[in-house]
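My current task is to audit a protein record that another person submitted. What it holds is a sequence and that sequence's fold in token form. Thanks in advance; the entry in question is below.
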Amino acid sequence: SANPAKVERLGKWLSQQPHDIVCMNECNQWQGPAVNLKTLAPQWGFPYVELLVAKTGFHIGIISKRPLTVVESTTAGFHHGLLHVKTQEGVHILATHNTP
């Protein structure tokens, strides 16, 4: 489950890093009122957020400093799912979470 203190530490660390795009696994319960990736990531300097809500509860997220286009967001054929995005520059980024 989402631990607000741990997520806050992660956000503080991410806001100090030079990364443009971050892929995340196990964003469990990160779409609720206490912890919400779509609300928090912009505060960390990542205004573009995509979140695949997996039926297993082990959600996949991609946050970015620049716009993203979702190419595919699916759970079909994957235990948790696959999130495929493309940057404006045409770079394809895939995030998945394999079977435990």
In short: The longest strand covers residues 68-74. The chain is about 20% helix and 35% strand.
